[in-house]
């Protein structure tokens, strides 16, 4: 087994590292959340970084994902080792070429940071609706559930595609995996070379269209022969799952990381099981371990190879004692009798029973649930809720989990459970582009690469991007971190923007006795009285330790303007004790040199100054232990606002949209004209003033428009209810 | 019930008639086999033909199917009654917008002439791979199996979409239904108006984006709310199937044509059942009626509403006595555990059993089969083959039918059965664009609209289009014609091109005692000896009556150049006796006036002359009743050709490609360099001569190229093995 090297990267980088190393042509077009894979590859090629065979991959950005698909297909026909990255609608535009690439049995890997498809609304976040829209193309589909797995499955897909001639779609959850930072073990070059034997690559080369070996491919076929030719592909698919198992075996022998097409986690005599794939399987892993420790006979199957779907391997993974199975799909297909993974599992169980090959003591009940659409939180508590449902006398055949469905009543109830693992859990409230995320990524690298601790960072971006709230969720600890969900009981909560205290419940997920660090324009003597009543109450109720720093002043005095990130990072290390203080300071400075060295001595010096000054300005606040103010958080909208605004629209800007039940959305459109109900922000109300160019034909609509127009009042602020689409 | 009006049209026109009548905006982009729908609509609007409300629909041709999808979506958001037509890759390009149209719950109908998606090869022909690629979008999917049904379902979809707000994809089989000509009953305007009540259309109008009623729609949503909002659509889908049933009921009351979401045909106590949708269900209908008459307890379910899939309605349609179910899918999804309709039926059966609601006396075995890919023939004989498989002790869980799979051995055996219905069955061998198809469509109209007989025409085009063989298959008879397959035992076979006798087995499907009419350059005394041995043998073996005419001379003498279609049509009527001869001649002349009247008196006169002369030149040939020649059909390729050419490549140009088994395609590419094996046609062999523009970098590949180049020999004929892609 090769000596392991560790790095701390997000899922996109973990995948790009493999893709860039194993290919010659990389055809790209950016789409959130897959773009960073292409950006990394582009940068590395621009820097002249070679692939495994010493040549620098050609990274070609096309005019659209459709163009990238054409470029891929063309490069493959020329015999190039080819890959691409995409997501969501970008994947949809590749589907026509994917049918052909698969039909022509072409080795190829497409990496997908799985993202929601736009339906009633666009979403940049993650679920499996995009990859499920491509499941019928004839691609093998391999799923990763964590950053390490994304790195590993990227490689397994590369190896398996040349062994099978079946193209592979490798996918992992958009944002939850693509943007989660974790410490991972890198696959050494010699293992990659071993998994890509020259003779297989030469076979691919030999299939290239070449005037010296003239063949015709991609013809038009007629009813006489098309069907027969299509069936001639069966043998390639029939042996694909076994080949993937063989690659897993080989990979495990070389790296020590062992996977199966379906992996079982849980009690060997489990009675209740869930089946799912992607990052949700990690949250379920946590829940199952807890429940098994508590004596429950439960378990889960992590689906790794979704296509070809090997029903026999799935059944072999499940203990024969299983009597109830909940299959969880991270997609929704309205009008279907059930979501795809559910139907596949049900089919595998039914086919085995029909064939008299059922491994189960008694025919299990199979039910299906939807979870996690558009990166909806999926937690161990929800997994327990699903197991509770399975324990019911008659489990619902179809359900949802993670929301409250007060309309069609499909949602199962659940209770959140606190994490009880060793280690640090921290939440940082920052403003998009204020440097908080960068500093946190830095902290993870310091801890992940400088210690034996495991490290995880996840960043809750708003799709409004820069200027919006960004909340960082960090975990450090001695055990591998599988909690693919937000931090719920944080021992450390930092609020980098004072104004957030008036808007958001920043202490909602502070654990009892946690540290609360606030960047405040007020001194340690004054800060308590300046906190809104709700914040004081939480500090008191939870027995929090309050720390404060005027980071803006520290940064400014160090010559760094408004860049408070280094200051706040220093405070985190100083208070949290995750590293010894001196060691932490040295590591921060080291990292500053690496990050800013190129920008010159002066920038580095200013950062050092900020670090040193931070500790002098950091104060623990002794507070009275009781609420001392009447001043509550100001309302976002006027009391007399219409019901829908109060009940729905105004909840979301508070970062409490997750509490809205399904019935909140029975009006499918959001009402406008809400600006006038907004509190003290808008200086004017924007109106649409149409210039009537022609008279005769447009007169009626002009008249209609004028009726509601107030010329002269200029647009002031954008209505926060009217959220912008810019993706 | 309204008084019925009959017309004789193909499926595309039958659908376009409804679509143009019921809409205001028709966004189109042409793709085979859906193009004629857009062409009809465009023509009718250009002619000023109004819709039901007296306005002429706007027909807008966009730059691609993606553009048409955007135009559709935009028009819908503006409140217009909107429709479109597409197929195959064109449908794929519409999928991104379809998710949004469905997500926004927008009434809309998309008509799809279902066509094969390009995989290992392109195909312009029909199967369900395209619509299955859109099954997850959230559209309702309604399937028609015949020209009449396509007309009817187009209307039912229009009615149901406004009742449910769920958009509908209405599909019917490309070519088999889109291009089959049948006599159908037209839905009267008053029925259409009744099915589209003003209040529902007004509701659609009221949901238009309008500055006077400002709402926001199509926003970006984040993890907080997307999932809940997505589940808010459930109630619309939950009631959709029942609403479609209500429309069927209403439609049936008005027209007398009754449909259900799942229709049962067969023995009320059937033990074996098949489930399928589309035109194949008509062939199955024929087989089931025959088998039930013969005392077999069999039946079939015609699936009309595929999405939302109403499992309870499916089970209600099946007799409780059913013990074996074969679900037939007209698509292939490599790597799936089963094709989609199969998995849906299996899920419905399993869910009912789990819930204790199974209607069956004993749990039925459900198996799945693929058929009819790329318009592969699907015949009553194949249906019987499937029922035989169901009667086996252990039916194969997955099978194919209609091909010989000698590799993965999935194909079930079948035997063709001859049709035994009353009426005329005729086959016409013509050259693409020689007028044969036009004349045959004409004959169908004459019979369909001038008599009480039912009439059907199907035309086997080669994708090489003009200049290639086109075989017309016509049926006339007193009963409705459900045989959605080629004519097998024709009472009349005409060969319009003498040279075909040397190439094709034109008499393969002549019934014993049939008429064989050949257009011959030889007189009645000479023609027999000029026939190749194989043709003489068939005439003798089957006891055929041989007729001949020198149609080219007749046409030329009538001043019509090479246009022999009117001459051959006249001969058909004269010999077949489907109408009394005088009546037929009058009808042909009447139809000539309608068709050519615009081109002037002279053209009509020439055609009349050809008709009159035809009868004078038509002769029955008294033949010796024994083979009199040694001259066989000349071989297509040299005896010493490579095995693959003889075994595979050369079979297809004989119109015998259907006989090739799966193993013929284990080499996925077709070998080139076949021209030199061709018989006596090519005057030279094309070679690729590459001009070496730059020296340094391209030298190695130039050298490689020159090795095989023979400069100076100019391209002569295209290799017939190198079939052109022009679609």
Question: What's the quick description here?
Answer:
Chain A is an alpha/beta fold and 727 residues long. Helix content of chain A is 36%, strand content 18%.
In quaternary terms, these chains amount to homodimer
Beta percentage of chain A is 15-25%
Apparent shape of chain A: globular
Largest interface by Cβ-Cβ < 8 Å: A-B, 132 and 131 residues
Count of distinct strands of chain A: 24
Structural class of chain A: alpha/beta
Helix content of chain A: 25-40%
Mean pLDDT of chain A: 91
Biggest sheet of chain A, in brief? 9 strands, mixed
Tally of separate helices of chain A: 24
Question: What does the model show?
Answer:
The structure is a homodimer of 727-residue chains. Chain A is built from 24 helices and 24 strands. Chain A starts with a strand and ends in a 19-residue tail after the last helix. The longest helix of chain A is centred in the first third of the chain and has 18 residues, at 147-164. Mean pLDDT of chain A is 91; it is low at 693-727. The first copy, chain A, has a 9-stranded mixed sheet with strand order 1-8-18-19-17-20-21-22-23, with helices on both faces. A 7-stranded mixed sheet of chain A has the order 3-2-4-5-7-6-13, with helices on both faces. In chain A, helix 19 runs antiparallel to helix 22 (601-617), helix 20 (565-576) crosses helix 22 and helix 21 (581-596) packs antiparallel against helix 22 (601-617). Chain A is of the alpha/beta class. In chain A, helix 4 (88-103) links the parallel strand 4 (82-86) and strand 5 (109-114). Chain A is globular, with a radius of gyration of 28 Å. Helices cover 36% and strands 18% of the residues of chain A. Chains A and B meet through helix 4, strand 9, helix 9, helix 10 and helix 14 of A and helix 4, strand 9, helix 9, helix 10 and helix 14 of B.
């Amino acid at each position: 087994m090769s000596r392991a090297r560790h790095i701390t990267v997000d899922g996109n980088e973990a995948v790009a590292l493999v893709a860039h190393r194993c290919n010659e042509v990389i055809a790209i077009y950016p789409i959130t959340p897959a773009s960073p894979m292409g950006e990394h590859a582009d940068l590395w090629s621009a820097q002249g970084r070679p692939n495994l065979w010493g040549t620098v991959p050609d990274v070609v950005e096309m005019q659209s994902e459709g163009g990238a698909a054409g470029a891929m297909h063309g490069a493959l026909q020329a015999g190039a080792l080819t890959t691409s990255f995409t997501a969501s609608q970008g994947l949809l535009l590749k589907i026509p070429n994917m049918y052909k690439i698969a039909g022509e049995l072409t080795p190829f890997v497409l990496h997908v940071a799985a993202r929601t498809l736009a339906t009633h609304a666009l979403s940049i976040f993650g679920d499996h609706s995009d990859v499920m829209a491509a499941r019928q193309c004839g691609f093998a589909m391999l799923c990763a559930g964590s950053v390490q797995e994304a790195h590993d499955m990227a490689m397994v897909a590369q190896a398996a595609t040349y062994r099978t001639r079946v193209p592979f779609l490798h996918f992992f959850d958009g944002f939850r995996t693509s943007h989660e930072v974790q410490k991972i073990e890198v696959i050494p070059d010699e293992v990659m070379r071993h998994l890509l034997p020259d003779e297989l690559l030469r076979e691919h080369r030999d299939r290239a269209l070449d005037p010296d070996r003239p063949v015709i491919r991609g013809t038009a076929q007629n009813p006489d022969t098309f069907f027969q030719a299509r069936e001639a592909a069966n043998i390639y698919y029939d042996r694909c799952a076994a080949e993937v198992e063989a690659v897993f075996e080989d990979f495990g022998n070389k790296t020590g990381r062992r996977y199966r097409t379906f992996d079982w986690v849980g009690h060997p005599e489990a009675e209740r099981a869930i089946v799912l794939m992607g990052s949700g399987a990690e949250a379920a892993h946590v829940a199952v371990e807890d429940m098994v420790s508590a004596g429950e006979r439960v378990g889960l199957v992590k689906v790794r190879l979704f296509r070809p779907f090997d029903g026999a391997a799935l059944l072999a993974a499940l203990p024969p004692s299983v009597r109830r199975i909940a299959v969880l799909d991270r997609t929704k297909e309205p009008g279907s009798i059930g979501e795809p993974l559910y139907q596949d599992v049900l089919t595998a169980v039914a086919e085995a029973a029909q064939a008299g090959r059922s491994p189960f003591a008694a025919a299990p009940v199979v039910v299906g649930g939807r979870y996690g659409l558009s990166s909806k939180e999926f937690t161990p508590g929800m997994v327990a809720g699903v197991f509770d449902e399975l324990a019911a006398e008659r489990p619902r055949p179809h359900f949802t989990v993670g929301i409250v469905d007060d309309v069609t009543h499909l949602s199962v109830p659940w209770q959140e459970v606190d994490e009880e693992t060793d280690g640090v859990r921290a939440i940082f409230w920052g403003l998009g582009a204020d440097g908080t995320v960068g500093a946190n990524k830095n902290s993870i690298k310091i801890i992940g690469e400088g210690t034996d601790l495991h490290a995880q960072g996840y960043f809750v971006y708003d799709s409004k991007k820069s200027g919006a709230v960004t909340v960082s969720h960090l975990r450090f600890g001695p055990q591998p971190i599988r909690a693919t969900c937000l931090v719920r009981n944080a021992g450390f909560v930092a609020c980098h923007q004072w104004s957030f205290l008036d808007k958001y419940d920043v202490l909602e997920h502070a654990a009892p006795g946690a540290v609360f660090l606030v960047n405040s324009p007020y001194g340690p003597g004054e800060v308590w009285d300046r906190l809104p009543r709700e914040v004081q109450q939480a500090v008191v109720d939870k027995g929090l330790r309050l720390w404060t720093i005027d980071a803006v002043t520290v940064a400014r005095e160090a010559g760094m303007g408004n860049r408070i990130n280094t200051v706040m990072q220093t405070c985190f290390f100083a208070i949290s004790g995750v590293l010894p203080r001196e060691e932490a300071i040295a590591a921060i400075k080291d990292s500053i040199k690496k990050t800013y060295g190129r920008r010159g001595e002066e920038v580095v010096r200013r950062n050092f100054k900020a670090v040193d000054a931070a500790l002098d300005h950091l104060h623990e606040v002794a507070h009275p232990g009781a609420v001392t103010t009447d001043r509550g958080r100001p309302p976002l909208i006027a009391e007399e606002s219409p019901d829908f605004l109060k009940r729905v629209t105004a909840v979301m800007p508070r970062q409490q949209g997750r509490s809205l039940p399904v019935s909140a959305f029975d009006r499918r459109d959001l009402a406008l004209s809400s600006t006038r109900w907004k509190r003290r922000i808008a200086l004017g109300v924007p109106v649409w003033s149409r210039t009537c160019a022609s008279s005769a034909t447009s007169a009626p609509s002009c008249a209609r428009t004028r009726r509601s127009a107030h010329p002269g009042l200029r647009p002031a602020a954008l209505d926060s209810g009217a959220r912008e689409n810019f993706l």
